[in-house]
Structures are given as C-alpha cells and as structure tokens.
Amino acid sequence: MSDPRTLFEKIWDSHLVGVAPDGTTTLYIDRHLVHEVTSPQAFEGLRIAGRTVRRPDATLAVADHNVPTTNRAAGIADPESRTQVETLEHNTKEFGVEYFSMDDIRQGIVHIVGPEQGMTQPGMTIVCGDSHTSTHGAFGALAFGIGTSEVEHVLATQTLVQKKPKSMRITVEGMIGAGVTAKDIVLAIIGKIGTAGGTGYVIEYSGRAIRELSMEGRMTICNMSIEAGAKAGLIAPDEKTIAYLKGRPMAPKSAAFEAAAAYWRTLPSDADATYEREVVIKAAEIVPQVTWGTSPDEVVPITGRVPDPAKEMDTQRRAKMQRSLDYMGLKAGMAMTDIAIDRVFIGSCTNARIEDLRAAAVVVKGKKVAPTVQAMVVPGSGLVKAQAEKEGLSQIFLDAGFEWREPGCSMCLAMNADKLQPGERCASTSNRNFEGRQGRGGRTHLLSPAMAAAAAITGKLADIRTFK
Amino acid sequence: MEKFTTLSGFAAPLPMVNVDTDMIIPKQFLKTIKRTGLGKHLFSEMRYKNDGKLDFTFVLNRMPFKDAKILITGANFGCGSSREHAPWALMDFGIRCIIAPSFADIFFNNCLKNGMLPIVMGERDTAEMMREAHDGKEFTIDLERRRVIRPNGAPVPFPLDDNARHMLLNGLDDIALTLAKTAEIDTFEDAQKKTQPWLYPAPPPAAPAP
Ligand code: SF4
C-alpha cells in the first residue's frame, strides 16, 4: 500500500518532469490558456530567441479583457486596446495556436471558455497568465495563475519551474440556507482566513455544502481562492463533474471519455490523507455577504454594519480600515442595508455563467430597476449569452431596465469602455473591490448575483432573504 | 537578464499592508505590448493628483526616494492580479529589491524572473528598517551571503532558496535551462501518452459547441 494522498498530491506527483535536490520542480503543464493582456511580451520573447510553441494543441487563446461590450461590428475604438487584441491575433496565427476571435460565438472570459469547451478536465495541470485561473480547480484540476515570463516558459517548454505548495483543506459542513450562494460561502471564507490566509497553499474545498453545489457554484468558489492568496483552489471531481464534461467539444469522446472518467474517479483524496492546515466552517452560519471596504476580506453579513477602525488594535490594520472607509465614503456603524448604490454590474469570471444569470433573472422578473441606478448584465461568453437569450432571460433583464451586453471582462476591471465614474458606488458580482478597480475613484461592493439584482431594484444594498 | 549580486542605495518606506498590483500599476497601463517604459506609471493613482501633477506627499516623489533602489513595505505585498507589469514598473522606476514581511506568490515569482529580489523579513526588522529608511539612510543587499546590511552596519540574514539565488546571482534565463532538459520532457510526454492518451487529442474542434 502506498501512503494516502490528497487530490493535490496525486496531480502534483503525476506531473513531475524532474526534481532538483533543493526541491525545485519541473512540472509538466497539460493545458495553457492565453489572453491578450499578459501574452504579448511572452510571444515577443519567443520571437527574439527564435523559439517555437512546444504544444500548440494544448494551448487556446481568447481576447476578453479589452473587448467592447457594445456594438462589436464597429471594432475596438481605443487604439491601444485594438493593438493588443490584434497582436494576440497575429501571434496566435504565427505560432499556430487556436484563437477565438471577438466575433466567434465561443469567445468570452477565458475562465468561462475553458470549462465550457470541455478543455478543463480533472487531474490536469492548467495555467494562464491570469490570477483567476484558480477557477478551473472546480473540476479537480491543479490550475493557477502565472506571470508573463512564465507564460513564455510554458509556451516554449510546456513546463514550469515550481516549488511544491502546502496543502489546506477547508470543510464547509452541513447545508447552506435559502438565499445563500457559492459567492457568499467564498466571501465568508475570505472574511475568516483573510487575503493572505491561503498564501503558499493549495486549498481543497470539501464538505456537504461544497458537494451540493453545481459546477457553476464550484467555479465561483475556486475562482476567488486567489482572493485568499492561495496558489490554487480544488474540488474533488465527482459524477456531477463527469456529467458536465460529457459531450463538450474539447472533452474526450466515447471510449476515450470512459477511460478518462475511470481515471478521474481515482483522483479524490484518500480518506486518511492529511493536510498541513485545516479550516472548518459551518454552512448554516453563513449569511449573504457583502464587502464594505477595498479588500475582499473587508466583508460583513448583509445584516451587519460598517465596522469601526477604532476597535482594531493593530495600527497598520487600523490605518488600512480607515483608508478603506474614506475611499468608500462610508461611516463606521452604518447598516449595510442603508447604503445606496448608483450602478449594478452582473458579470465577470466569478459570476457570469448561465446559472448566475438565471438566479439574477428570478429576482428582477416583472420589476423595474430603481430610477437612481444604472444596471448592466455582461454574460461570460457568447454561448452563455445565446443560452440566456434562448431561455428569455435577456428579455427579463431588458424589461426591468438592465443593459444587456456582449461577453467579456468589462467592468470587472474596466480596461474597456465600461467604468465607474469617480465616487460612483457599484454593487458588483465580480471578485475585487480594490481602489480604482472598476474605474478611478469608483466604489465597489462585492456580492452574489441575486443580491446584485435585488440591489438594482431597491437602489440600496438589500438582503435577498427578505427582498420582495 | 542582469545579474543581481549586491545592491546599495536608498530605500523608500511604504508603510501599507496588502498593496495590490492594481495599486502598483493600474489597468489603464496594461495595454502596452512592451516590458519597458512603465516606471512613470508606477503607483500612478497615489503618485499623481487628479490634475496629473506630482503629489509630493507620496514617498517616491520626494528626495532621496526618487532614486530609491529598494522598497520597504507591509505584509502581503503584490496581492491580486498576476500582472507582471507590476515588477516591470518597479524595475523601470529603478527599484530592484523589495523588503516586506510577506508577499503574494505570483508577484514573488514574477520578481525573480526579472532579476529582482523580494526579501521576506520579520515584522519587527521590517518596521525598524522602515524607520531607518525614512531618515534617508542607505542600505546594502548582499545576495551572495543572503543578508541585508543596515545603515548602522548590522547584517540581517534573509531566506531565499538555493535555486532562486543561483539564478539571480548568475542572471540566468530560466527557459534556456529548461530547454536543455528537452529529453526529459519528451520522456514525460511519451509516458503520459500511454497512460492518459485523451490528453493528446487529434485536431482541435472546428465547430462551436451546441
Ligand atoms: S472577469 Fe475580471 S477577474 Fe475574471 S479574468 Fe476578466 S478581469 Fe480577470
């Protein structure tokens, strides 16, 4: 009998190309996703050194950060954004990498596209020059974000030089209550362990509340692992994972699929495997969450109040809290449900899959967006958009007064034309509430799609559980 | 890549925790397709006022920190986005070493790949060094012996694994080293093709998903 191993260890061990005496590991990479912002300098590096892409067949590129979400036919107005997208197009052509262009229905946010195409599979190592690559861990793949130099390294060698991270298990015991979603679970976890709580670790999420989640919900959880500082997030593959992948364009077919599925079923952590750190959270105690500050761990239950920096003992942390309050234009002690908002953004790789749009549509159906609010929905991919249109969700949003946009990152980071104006306050389903993230001076409150929809209707942050 | 052996100069104190890469280099400057020229946008939103003029209350706009080669800052530096533009911007400004109690993983790696040295230092030592830096005193970094020489001459050791140190000291290109192991990579792929053949699909799909 071999030693019991975790899911993470099984994946790690099966991808070792070589290990140096000091533990530095050459790790094989099965799949590589590429987008326009973090790849130009990598392709340029290859070109200068006269190198090629080792496995174009394992590489997929898509433009998402810079693309406009309105009137695609007009192209990209901003010259720098246009250059970046065109550069990706040229580079992928030159190096023989498949590319989903802006007018391909498969185009979308890179972390939505990979799973949707069935490119993301259990047991794989997956990287992308993007921190939210952790999303793909929802399938039981070891997936993590890398920098541009590492993108170049993977393009050239299909490997990465790595140190083995530590392992942590976060168990969410029991069942979540009505109105509580995957987004609330992950925000509650970040609130508990902090934005550096996962640094140096791969986090495996387990427990009944996690198992009961759909694949979409699991992706939301793993997506925000990086907001806890983790190297990656992982959820053990199960029959739900296998059913999700079956029939997807890049998933294995027929006999190969069965062989793959048999392997995937061997991946979950052995019963007596151990972790270097364990965290347990009771699902029943999780209340819908919303952030008040400019760091994802500055989060409280919607029933809560804006915290008071005077009660924080650590001076650096107190200063950070005060800075957050000043930036956010909030006063300590305010009820979260008294905070009025100007904008609503439903989108991003955290929450722009079909299930997220369904959850938001249920809330807004037959209602109107508050007259003081400008609200938009940006589907995660062209396929999500088409599906939502087929189900009549787009009409529900349009009737309520939402804008219905083309897929992309959009106001998650505001690199395209979609941004907050200084001082504008936004209820957002994205993943980062950093200063200026959604536009210089913009103020972001992170929450679930249903809560964002409720905020759009009431004009204030609202508790979805009491919303009518 | 330029070698990193020793470095002497002013250290700019930035007493903030959780400095994220959006703060180090905001997204409007990520549209470049080059690695250079980002220094003028480093910490843009703190360094410039709304009218575009320099804000002289910000440390990097003041003497002698305009010429700082070292940055001393709070825990979890470089968290958030994976953008390598963050170390590129620091480097372009002239900073080659960052001292903090902890770093975000991706940022830490990104520094090493660019010949920059991230130093993990205890909270107390960091706080003391920040005070000395504030007084405009010079520090020396001795990578060979893995230590920071404080302005009063006292050496403080720091951790860094052998491989990273070796790469920095010799200014080595990671990719060339890995390409030298191509035979090992071939062997790995041959074995994987047998155990997990589905990872090597024939041609990529041509049609969109249903
Ligand atoms: S949606 Fe936001 S977090 Fe996700 S990849 Fe795009 S910019 Fe990054």
Percentage beta strand of chain A: 15-25%
Question: H/E order of the elements of chain B?
Answer: EHHEHEHEHEEEHHH
Largest sheet of chain A: 5 strands, parallel
Q: Hetero groups bound?
A: iron/sulfur cluster
Largest sheet of chain B: 7 strands, mixed
Oligomer: heterodimer
Can you give a write-up of this model?
The complex is a heterodimer of chains A (468) and B (210). With 468 residues, chain A is of the alpha/beta class. Chain A is built from 15 helices and 19 strands. In chain A, the strands form five sheets. A five-stranded parallel sheet of chain A has the order 5-4-3-6-7, sandwiched between helices. In chain A, strands 17-16-15-18-19 form a five-stranded parallel sheet. In chain A, strand 13 and strand 14 (299-301) form a beta hairpin. The mean pLDDT of chain A is 96. With 210 residues, chain B is of the alpha/beta class. Chain B is 31% helix and 15% strand. Chain B has a seven-stranded mixed sheet with strand order 4-3-2-1-5-6-7. In chain B, a hairpin with a 4-residue loop joins strand 5 and strand 6 (147-149). Chain B is globular and about 65 Å long. At the A-B interface, helix 2, helix 3, helix 5, helix 10 and helix 11 of A face helix 4, helix 7 and helix 8 of B.
Give a short overview:
Chain A has 468 residues and is an alpha/beta fold. Chain A has 15 helices and 19 strands. In chain A, the strands form five sheets. A five-stranded parallel β-sheet of chain A has the order 5-4-3-6-7, sandwiched between helices.
What's the SSE blueprint?
The complex is a heterodimer of chains A (468) and B (210).
Chain A: H1 7-13, E1 16-19, E2 25-28, E3 31-34, H2 40-49, E4 59-62, H3 79-95, E5 98-100, H4 110-116, E6 125-128, E7 142-145, H5 148-157, E8 159-162, E9 166-173, H6 182-193, E10 201-206, H7 208-211, H8 215-223, E11 232-234, H9 239-245, H10 254-264, E12 277-282, E13 289-291, E14 299-301, H11 315-328, E15 343-346, H12 354-364, E16 374-377, H13 382-390, H14 393-400, E17 403-404, E18 425-428, E19 443-446, H15 449-458
Parallel strand pairs in A: 3-4, 3-6, 4-5, 6-7, 9-10, 9-12, 10-11, 15-16, 15-18, 16-17, 18-19
Antiparallel strand pairs in A: 1-2, 2-8, 13-14
Helix pairs in contact in A: 2-5, 6-8, 12-14, 12-15
Chain B: E1 6-14, H1 21-24, H2 44-47, E2 70-73, H3 85-93, E3 97-100, H4 105-112, E4 117-120, H5 123-134, E5 138-142, E6 147-149, E7 155-157, H6 162-170, H7 174-179, H8 182-195
Parallel strand pairs in B: 1-2, 2-3, 3-4
Antiparallel strand pairs in B: 1-5, 5-6, 6-7
